[in-house]
Amino acid sequence: MRNPKQLEWPTVAMLAVCYGLWLVCGLVVWPEFPLPALALMAVAVALHSSLQHEVLHGHPTRSAAVNELLVALPLGVFYPYRRFRQLHLAHHNDERLTDPYDDPESWYRSAVTWRRLGAPLRFLLVVNNTLAGRLLVGPLLMVGAFFASEPGRILRGERGVRRAWLHHVAGLAVLAVIVFGVMDIPPLAYLAVAWAGMSIIAIRTYCEHRWEERPDGRTVIVENGGVLGLLFLYNNLHLVHHKRPQVPWYELPALYRAHRAEWLRRNGGYVFPDYWAIFRAYAFRAKEPVVHPAWRIGEVPASVSGGSFHPAGAPTGPRVGGGAVVPAKADRE
Predict the structure, then answer these.
(1) Backbone conformation region of residue 298, classed left if phi is above 0, alpha if psi is from -120 to 50, else beta
(2) How far apart are CA 295 and CA 319, in angstroms?
(3) DSSP H or E stretch at residue 172
(4) Whose CA is closest to 215, among 129, 325, 89, 307?
(5) Which of 3, 238, 250, 314 is the most exposed place for a label (fewest CB within 10 A)?
(6) Residue 173 CB-half CA count within 13 A
(7) Measured on CA atoms in the order 114, 118, 121, 127, is the torsion positive or negative?
(8) What is the pLDDT of residue 278?
(9) pLDDT score at 6
(10) pLDDT at 3
């Protein structure tokens, strides 16, 4: 466990690797080998997303302002960091995990919402529930739902939304100077980089959560993350992260190994040996239905439509299962 007074040097080193890779590819590799440069920049974008996730949980310093500054350059283009932070911290309410109304990162739809959707969107959501579909159409659905909902939030003056976008626009201006002015990468080429970075992250998020009556059973463990595990900062051990969100990424593997049997018991066996097992099982087969299993009948439609990062429905609404929930708080440090 970290000393809260200390700087977390492994995270600082990973930030240096991320920005170093991105800069070298854009300044040195791009002029001679454009396609490999763009591919490696997409990897840097995915790593930057993982680092933003680490930062919003209070790493690598005790200063939220310093931490935000470390990931302020929006390599991934599409999402303001502060909006990501707001929505992701709301997602960490484990009692509401997968709720199509209350979990901002849920891909599930309620039966009421599903019946209202047109055939083309239904088709895309079904395809999106395969891993190949998540990599191909997932970014389109994520960005589309997010951009559709944000103007209304800005107009309604929702807390922090306007400022998040102002910070983001300022960061985009700096990014544009570097990418278009210094690196001389065309805008469409860099948008493809950002898009590919989202697809890489989708490998991690595809299986992260499922519906299960017990909240601890809703979060996956991928035991051997390999290179992808490092790229995802060991969020393949996702239950461990959800129960101990203040633990830095580099301590998660040891924490898991020390209590492996207990972690497996807690999540009810929602475990994969590695990411290749997920590819084999679900590349072209849906892992689960689009309609939430606990929201098939007896629902009341939510009064507000719109999504957040994923097309999930309103941010508030009836409770999963129509009643009580099983407490699932984060573990105490």
Answers:
(1) left
(2) 9
(3) helix 161-176
(4) 325
(5) 3
(6) 6
(7) positive
(8) 97
(9) 82
(10) 54
> Burial level of 142, CB count in 10 A (0-12/13-18/19+)?
buried
Nearest in space to 72 (alpha carbons), one of 83, 61, 84, 80: 80
Which stretches of the chain score pLDDT less than 70? 1-5, 295-333
pLDDT of residue 308: 31
Q: How far is CA 244 from CA 30, 92, 161, 235, 311, in A?
A: 40, 11, 28, 12, 27
- pLDDT for residue 5: 54
Distance CA(127)–CA(257), nearest Å, equals: 35
261, two tokens? 């049997």
Q: What is the C-alpha to C-alpha distance for residues 8 and 11, in angstroms, rounded to an integer?
A: 6
pTM reported for the whole predicted model: 0.87
pLDDT at 294: 83
Supply 22's token pair. Answer: 């991105």
Displacement of CA 140 from its chain's centroid (Å): 14
d(CA 113, CA 295): 10
Predicted pLDDT of residue 298:
43
